[in-house]
Amino acid sequence: MNDTLIVYYSLFGNTKNLAIEIAKQTGGTMRELVPDKKYSFDYNTAAKEVRNEISRGFCPKLIRGNESIDDYQTIFIGTPNWFKTVAPPVLSFLKQFDFTGKTVIPFCTHGGGGFCQIEDDIVKECSEATLLSGIAINGSAESESISRWLETIAYSQ
């Protein structure tokens, strides 16, 4: 069994597409985070909901994706950049598990903001893990850019 897990939350499919490409290139297992309450598919409404949750530090209950991580050594964690930080379902996942001794690799999709404080927020929740440099993708992920990034961080299966 491959000991790599690719965990992600994606509302509009961008982060999911990046997770799929990472899984193809690493052979890792994909795991989608699904909160108990879905966000609105209307962008403006979803943005209001999310801004409110982030400002309160809200962590939604996960109905899928919160299975044990014990069998995995390397965990890629993917999120859209929502108001400069991780999406609340990703925060729920991060707070639920102990990442001691694991290698954590963040990735995000964004509309021009890059990582902002996403990597710092992940470090705060995974302080006992080894964190490798992540990738932030604006638009669609090209397989070549993912390959170069994996080489840069010396990822090996």
Structure, described:
- One of its GO terms (molecular function) is FMN binding.
- Residues 4-153 form the Flavodoxin-like domain.
- InterPro entries: Flavodoxin/NO_synth (IPR008254), Flavoprotein-like_sf (IPR029039).
- It comes from Desulfitobacterium dichloroeliminans (strain LMG P-21439 / DCA1).
- This is Flavodoxin.
- The protein is an alpha/beta fold.
- It has one domain (4-152): Rossmann fold.
- Helix content is 34%, strand content 22%.
- It has five helices and eight strands; from the N terminus they run βαββαββαβαββα.
- It has helices at residues 14-26, 43-56, 88-96, 118-125, 143-152, and strands spanning 4-8, 29-32, 34-35, 62-64, 74-80, 103-110, 130-131, 135-138.
- The strands form two sheets. Strands 1, 2, 5, 6, 7 and 8 form a six-stranded parallel beta sheet that branches. A two-stranded antiparallel sheet has the order 3-4.
- The chain starts with a strand and ends in a 5-residue tail after the last helix.
Key terms for this structure?
single chain; 157 residues; alpha/beta; Rossmann fold; globular; Flavodoxin/NO_synth; oxidoreductase activity, acting on NAD(P)H; FMN binding; Flavodoxin
The CATH class designation is: Alpha Beta
Percent in strands: 15-25%
Looking at this structure, what is the CATH superfamily? Flavodoxin domain
Distance between the termini: 11 Å
User: Structural class given helices, strands, pairing?
Assistant: alpha/beta
- From the 3D structure, determine the CATH topology: Rossmann fold
Number of E strands: 8
Assembly type: single chain
Number of helix segments?
Answer: 5
List SSEs in N-to-C order: EHEEHEEHEHEEH
